[in-house]
Design goal:
The protein is mainly alpha-helical. Helix content is 70%, strand content 0%. It has five helices and no strands. The longest helix is centred in the first third of the chain and has 17 residues. It starts with a helix and ends with a helix.
Length: 86
Amino acid sequence: MDDYNEIFWDNVIRWQKYRGYTNKVMSEKLGITLPSYNNIRVTRPGISTKKLNRYTYALNCEPADLFDEWTDEEWEKFVKREKEAE
């Protein structure tokens, strides 16, 4: 697995948690079954452009957001800043 793939899946999990989506909600937003989504989260397959678009739509974020390399501290600052802006 290459670094970008790992970064992508780490960010999917971060954004999913940030949005407050359960795995069931994510599977519904992606139009797949819950067991399929759970399997994807474990196996972390390579990502195609089509799948990238589905994830950004489901998570309401930009494609670049799923490839940013965040430290945990940077992510926490981002979340705090976003919540303060609401």
